[in-house]
Write a structure and sequence with these properties.
- With about 475 residues, this protein is α+β, with helices and mostly antiparallel strands.
- An eight-stranded antiparallel β-sheet has the order 13-12-9-10-11-14-21-19, sandwiched between helices. Strands 3-2-1-4-5 form a five-stranded parallel β-sheet, sandwiched between helices. Strands 7-6-8 form a three-stranded antiparallel β-sheet, with helices on one face.
- The radius of gyration is 22 Å and the shape is globular.
- The protein contains 16 helices and 22 strands.
- Helix 5 (about 110-115) runs antiparallel to helix 6.
- The longest helix is centred in the middle third of the chain and has 18 residues, at about 270-285.
- Bound molecules: adenosine-5'-diphosphate (ADP).
- Adenosine-5'-diphosphate binds near residues 225, 296 and 306.
């Protein structure tokens, strides 16, 4: 796998990677996030180059970019073949590449290759992408930095006997996670030794199917936690700030579907402690650009680091709404070598924002991805509403990619107002032709516990079991 970055040897190599003004960016992604990045560039007066697969020829972002190039062949490889992508960036005279999320965004070899080829990678340093991309190494590092973590195995495990031993050492319940994967795949909660073998096998098989390697790691399972994450921003000069927290507890099958800034329920002292801990850790590792540190907060307000994402997150929109800071533009400016234009005390968080992931999934078919023609489409608008969409009427959803077709984000000054606004905006949203998860989202904003800001990661399981 990834070896630590080689030291830059010659002056010529150094000059190639010197921070410099970014005038043109290649967007190495697709869908709504490609549009989001293009918008950020346009506002900064930066030219954009889009790439697209044959399946994405009719996507909106392709039309929004200044230039767009087809990458023929496999529709997924189009966004993963980084030799080709970097070549294209050079040919089209781009200064930098923005990777978005998914695809190449957390590939340290790609980030390093960009640098070596004289292209600015808009994101963290390759060594940090590598470190935090390995969940076990990340936990170890964070523990060294004084952040609490959950007890668990410190290496990938493929052997049943060994796994069982570790599980009984940790004490049930435990959670199994794919060592080389994410997105909730390969996760199993094991409540007692008697069910360990069956669940270990199914976790192993699922991980093998999705990630090529079945190895898992084991962690103490937290009952009824809240998923709270801290948005970090850091420049090249050691200035680190946080942009507050997001509560991403509303999940289906361990995958986020609703994200909220600021948390309506978390204790103010706990928030402050999370901010302090996160900023300190990132300062100590010399982190750069943006990142998100994810924690589980238990019923007694103890918090534990679970993982860090070294990229722009899907749910960055809600942080933008409460802080007024354009995170994508700041990523570009940091990569250019600009200093953060604010201190921590200049950043204020106002009101509440909620993001809803509108997925093309069929609630009647266990939320299987739905593909095909969108026959009717109307997105909500009005005060405090933001839509980051990838689709339109007559668009055909291809079968190769993520099922998220739009993100609806709403903002209001109080929690009660934002929930009312969310209900109104979700009701305005019309997508016909393909089934979506809109019925689930509409049920959430009508549920009393949600309205009262009371939810943990078990929320959908317990409150809306018909949707699980
Ligand atoms: P992934 O990278 O697959 O998204 P994460 O480690 O970020 O996996 O966890 C995703 C979700 O799974 C969390 O938000 C939480 O709901 C649940 N989860 C993960 N670890 C634990 C744990 N130790 N105890 C309870 N729930 C957990």
């Amino acid at each position: 796998l990834y070896k630590s970055v080689k030291k830059i040897s010659s002056k010529k190599e150094y000059m190639k990677v010197m921070p410099r003004e970014i005038k043109k960016v290649l967007v190495a992604n697709r869908g709504e996030i490609a549009t989001r990045i293009i918008r950020a560039c346009k506002e900064l007066g930066i030219k954009t180059v889009a790439i697209y697969s044959e399946a994405d020829a009719k996507s909106i972002y392709v039309k929004k970019a200044d230039e767009a190039y087809l990458i023929p062949g496999d529709p997924i490889q189009a966004y993963l073949n980084y030799f080709r992508i970097v070549d294209l960036a050079k040919q089209t005279k781009c200064d930098a590449i923005h990777p978005g999320y998914g695809f190449l965004s957390e590939n340290p070899e790609f980030a390093e290759y960009c640098v070596k080829q004289g292209i600015i990678f808009i994101g963290p340093k390759p060594e940090h992408i590598a470190l935090f991309g390995d969940k076990m190494a990340a936990k170890k590092k964070m523990r060294e930095l004084g952040v609490s973590i959950l007890p668990g195995s410190d290496e990938p495990i493929s052997d049943l006997k060994k796994a069982k031993e570790i599980a009984s050492e940790i004490g049930y319940p435990v959670i199994l996670k794919a060592a080389y994967g994410g997105g909730g795949r390969g996760m199993r909660i094991v409540r007692s030794e008697s069910e360990f073998e069956t669940l270990f096998q199914s976790a192993y098989n699922e991980a093998k199917k999705f990630f090529g390697k079945g190895d898992v790691f084991i962690e103490k399972y937290v009952e009824n936690p809240r998923h709270i994450e801290i948005q970090i921003m850091a420049d090249k000069y050691g200035n680190v700030v946080h942009l507050g927290e997001r509560d991403c507890s509303i999940q289906r099958r361990h995958q986020k579907i609703v994200e909220i800034a600021r948390s309506p329920s978390l204790d103010e002292e706990v928030k402050k402690e999370l901010y302090r801990t996160s900023v300190k850790a990132m300062f100590k590792v010399g982190y750069e650009n943006v990142g998100t540190i994810e924690y589980l907060v238990d019923e007694n307000n103890n918090f534990y680091f679970i993982e860090m994402n070294t990229r722009l997150q899907v749910e960055h929109t809600v942080t933008e709404m409460v802080t007024g800071i354009d995170i994508v533009q700041k990523m570009i400016e940091i990569a250019e070598g600009k200093k953060l234009p604010f201190l921590q005390e200049d950043i204020s968080m106002r009101g509440y924002a909620i993001e809803f992931r509108v997925n093309a999934e069929d609630p009647a078919k266990n939320f299987a991805p739905s593909v095909g023609l969108i026959t009717s489409y109307h997105s909500p608008g009005g005060p405090g509403v933001r839509v980051d969409a990838a689709v339109y009427k007559d668009y055909v959803i291809p079968p190769y990619y993520d099922s998220m077709i739009a993100k609806l984000s709403v903002w209001a000054l109080t929690w009660q107002d934002v929930v009312n606004r969310a209900r109104r905006a979700l009701d305005e949203f019309i997508v016909r032709g393909v089934p979506t998860n809109l019925p689930l989202l509409r049920a959430i904003v009508r549920d009393e516990d949600f309205i009262n800001g009371k939810f943990t990661t078990k929320y959908i399981d317990e409150k809306l079991p018909t949707f699980n």
